[in-house]
Design goal:
8 helices; 18% strand; two-stranded antiparallel sheet; Alpha-Beta Plaits; four-stranded antiparallel β-sheet; 60% helix; 6 strands; alpha+beta; 245 residues
Length: 245
């Protein structure tokens, strides 16, 4: 086919299209579901005071939904003749591109990785938006339900079991003779069995900070122990190492 003929057919196709046509009911529902479902995840992250909250998750969900709608409905409508279109091409780029946003909320603190759960939630919001764009509403809703079962039921349940079998306390203190010895002695006096499982140092201009992870077994009142540790001279911070992201 000559280039002129192809250009003529494409021009006829473009002329026949209504660029201001109203979206179909399914497309409107896709946007609405993507907004509501991604917002529900964003609200949960917002209530936990995470860096990526409702705005980030809603924008990711809506953007992924729109990309999917374009891939399924928009791009094929512009094609003419025997030209083929692979609807999975745009979706694949969304999956890989969303990783850059997720990487932005992951950070390191004292050799510990933070933000992985929030980054994963953003990734799930993108998948939910894509599912809505493909009008797989029940599947998107099912994933949201599974998300809340994980963060509101299974994670606290696992944490409760961990409290019974052993907990890891992370203690940061200014390097000073006798601090760790006094801490371990207090832990023993409170009826805990202790085991130092990690030890690292951070050097700053004005001080040298030591971070130690101690596994506790037995005992009863961990909160009281953490309160005492936080007020002990030389201790900068004392917390449970497995506290949620």
């Amino acid at each position: 086919m000559c280039a002129g003929c192809f250009g003529y057919r494409r021009a006829r196709t473009m002329e026949s299209m209504d660029f201001f046509a109203l979206p179909s009911t399914g497309q409107v529902l896709a946007i609405v579901f993507a907004f509501l479902l991604s917002a529900s995840i964003g609200i949960e992250r917002e209530l936990r005071h995470k860096d990526a909250g409702i705005r980030t998750h809603v924008l990711v969900g809506l953007g992924s939904c729109l990309f999917t709608l374009i891939s399924i409905n928009g791009a094929p409508a512009l094609l003419s003749g025997n030209t083929s279109w692979d609807a999975a091409r745009i979706a694949a780029q969304v999956v890989s591109g969303i990783g850059f946003i997720g990487a932005g909320v992951i950070w390191f603190n004292h050799d510990a990785i933070r933000g992985l759960t929030t980054a994963s939630a953003i990734w799930v919001a993108a998948a939910i938006g894509m599912a809505c764009g493909a009008q797989m509403f029940f599947l998107a809703l099912l994933v949201v339900v599974a998300y809340f079962l994980l963060v509101l039921v299974f994670a606290p349940l696992f944490y409760a079991i961990t409290r019974r079998t052993g907990q890891v306390v992370e203690i940061s203190y200014v390097e000073k003779q006798g601090v760790l010895k006094a801490v371990l002695l207090e832990i023993t006096q409170r009826g805990f069995e202790s085991q130092v499982i990690a030890f690292r140092q951070n050097k700053y201009a004005d001080r040298r900070e030591t971070v130690v992870d101690i596994r506790l077994k037995g005992g009863r009142d961990v909160d009281s122990l953490l309160s005492w540790l936080s007020e002990y001279e030389g201790v900068l911070e004392a917390k449970l190492a497995d506290e949620g992201e």
